[in-house]
Amino acid sequence: MRKITVAQAINEALAEEISLNNEVFVLGEDVGKFGGCFGVTAGLYDKFPDNVIDTPISEAGIMGLSAGAAYMGMKMVPELMFADFTGVAMDYFLNQISKSRYMGGMQPEGKECCVVVRLPNGAGVTAAAQHSQCIEALLMNIPGIKIAIPSTPADYKGMLKYAIRGKDPVAFFEHKLLYGIKGEVPDEDYVIPLASADVKREGTDVTVIATQVMVHKSLAAADKLAKEGISVEVVDPRSLKPLDTKTIIDSVKKTGRVVLVNEAPEFGNALTEIGLQIAELALKELKAAPVRVCGPNRPIPFSPVLEKQWLVSEEDIIEGIKSVLK
Q1: What element of type H or E holds 294?
Q2: What's the start-to-end Cα distance of the chain, in Å?
Q3: Using an 8 Å Cβ cutoff, are 273 and 264 in contact?
Q4: Is 0.85 topped by the overall pTM?
Q5: Model confidence over 240-262: pLDDT tens digits?
Q6: pLDDT digit string (tens) for 51-95?
Q7: Is 131 designated active site?
Q8: Which of 75, 131, 157, 217 is catalytic?
Q9: In whole angstroms, what is the distance from residue 152 CA to residue 282 CA?
Q10: Between 163 and which of 24, 116, 258, 273 could a Cys-Cys bridge form, CB atoms 3.0 to 4.6 Å apart?
Q11: Paired residues of 28 in beta bridges
Q12: d(C-alpha 77, C-alpha 41), whole Å
């Protein structure tokens, strides 16, 4: 084991998968010589000049190239510089790569469409309303798209390698605030399957289901609450589609209380689906109604002061936990 950042973990995953399979391609705006907007692909072009492709500023073009190559059996890893730009290429998510396996029928080239779309997302870097959103909820209702939302370096590396070795399109969200977070990563080759939620901290009084940056804030909140005698279990789904419902339900049945923590606006939030599944599968075990701790239902401000107020804080999470214990 060694400690590396999320950015380094993603970089390693890409390099290792290209080394293992010459038909893995990384492409996007400035991902080559410049090393990516956030430095994540630094050095990859020098090592693999034929597999790392700088593209024009055209998300539709990036996704079109990726879809076509994937239909022919290649493993495509496009980066859309900001997840917010998914809308520019939404047709490929909604009607193309998500439908390829179903509509391909018995045609061999129609059975696979490995497009792992890297999507830097999230607020906290004063990038304003159009470059700061968590948009996973927009993709939740599209059959055929898998959604990965890791939170640690080990999870990012293992899940990215798993996605690239797979046969399906994956929306792979990378929170911008997590790129510099360090954590232990195995030295050996490994993968982490989707639908493998991880209990980041065990507890007995309440289950907190959190994603990405909110996992770290929830762990910090749990540390503070432990000093008050409140035992918090923190569960990281790690992927939303497919969803590891069993791990989540087992935790909720153990604690009887649940708080859903996600950075995106509360209305229509991606974790609402998890809340409904809890109601369907563990209603009798609940001691209180589920509580949501999410962002406000308004655009993200550019002003650092206002953005800080917009973001879900440790204090918000603590307040949510205490409310479900009353």
Answers
A1: strand 291-295
A2: 42
A3: no
A4: yes
A5: 999 999 999 999 999 999 999 99
A6: 999 999 999 999 999 999 998 999 999 999 999 999 999 999 999
A7: yes
A8: 131
A9: 28
A10: 116
A11: 54, 79
A12: 11
